[in-house]
Amino acid sequence: MDNFGIKDALNQLGIKELNEGTSTGSQWFANGDIIESYSPVNGELIGKVKTSTKDDYEKVMQKATEAFKSWRLVPAPKRGEIVRQVGEALREKKDALGKLVSYEMGKSFQEGLGEVQEMIDICDYAVGLSRQLYGFTMHSERPMHRMYDQYHPLGVVGTISAFNFPVAVWSWNAAIAWVCGDVCVWKPSSKTPLCAVACQNIITEVFRKNNIDEGVSCIVTGNACGDLINNDHRIPLVSFTGSTRIGRHVSKTVAERFGKTILELGGNNAIIVSEHADINMVLVGAVFGAVGTAGQRCTSTRRLIIHESIYDKTIQALQNAYTQLSIGNPLDASNHVGPLIDKGAVQDYLNAIEKAKSEGGKVIVEGGVLEGEGYESGCYVKPCVIEAENSYEIVQAETFAPVLYVMKYSTIEEAIDMQNNVPQGLSSSVFTTNMREAELFLSHAGSDCGIANVNIGTSGAEIGGAFGGEKETGGGRESGSDAWKAYMRRQTNTINYGKELPLAQGIKFDF
């Protein structure tokens, strides 16, 4: 593995054999149990992280709440300048951090680099945003009065992130929250803790050079910290990325204390392949969507809904494309598909295939676990394609693995109904050169997902748009557009600059 420069990357990122998993910025400490992080690439131990205890968490929160008092007073463009420097630091460490993401999570090195590039992009976006945190002015019904809305920082933002995007999704929250005047406490996935330690090391150096108060960027590790964040009244906003099952718990827990949530939960994303589609474009979008990150993206393509007139032709092209996939070490650029995150994910993959068969599914491209040289970790599987009905119980669920279900449709209206008829509502796509079909798909009668694309796959989103979905996907929005408003509290102000005090609605109150 040294041939890929892993040891050098770990050294550049300050990763040790044993790392403390609690940080308030300049201080690292921890008194909890130890997490051992093994690479799904080869099964080797990368490093260890000592987790945060309840007392460690409390020290972090004390630092964070104190830091907010001064950070919120820093002018937003000045906060943006700090985030700009974070982006520059990420540029310098892009190769090293991309390798760690690939090695610890298992996605291809190109996808690892792409994830770090997302971090850089959101920093650039946040810098511009720091000068555009707009309110707006309204006309008052009362004479010599002015009304306007403005936005204030919320306070401490808690971010609980998932293993599949171990750095990018956190940065969507952190960069925006920082320029809004919030401070951040991050609990990364216990499956990819070293990526978080590396990010904190990079950020701490930037903050230290700028004499930023300790506590603006904090990290806690260990599963127990999740509910400490969810139940903490000092955290007005919790951003959670993960399964729908755990998302329900987060939503209920935070709502009970009247906190706010940004929920990015499950996806069950479909591509509709019209009889008017460009099949070559379909293959690129569908295959990458289904097998990219070994099917472990919330936007991964799970269902391919194909017009009956081109069904056989599309299946044949899909089968041919799957024979050309290379599965192996994700740090090797010649491979298309890397491993699943762990053996638990492998078992979920196998269970899904068996469940689909038991419900009547027909295997189009055979799956299975790969063994032998290069596959010693036991986490490599073959991307699988199964002909199924949309109503199957397993098709209605999200399986975080490269399993693609294919099915037929007759009319575009039927296809849209099939696309929508699942509990999740994250990403969706139609491939067509027919303008009417495209516009119908994007209309009120079209896709019910938070993301709807035409002639683009379901997987991969630019940071300029708001990312998130509906129904069991949680309704949250992160990253671009006006998603920044979730990180601030809205306030309506009215100023009376006259010499009288008229009441609203013409109410008279004389005495």
Automatic annotation (TrEMBL):
Domain of life: Bacteria
Entry EC no(s): 1.2.1.3
Keyword tags: NAD, Oxidoreductase
Domain Aldehyde dehydrogenase span(s) in chain numbering: 33-492
Catalytic site: E264
Main EC class the enzyme belongs to: oxidoreductase
CDD domains: ALDH_F7_AASADH (cd07130)
Keyword NAD: yes
Family statement drawn from the similarity comment of this UniProt entry: Belongs to the aldehyde dehydrogenase family.
Protein's name in the database: aldehyde dehydrogenase (NAD(+))
UniProt source species: Avrilella dinanensis
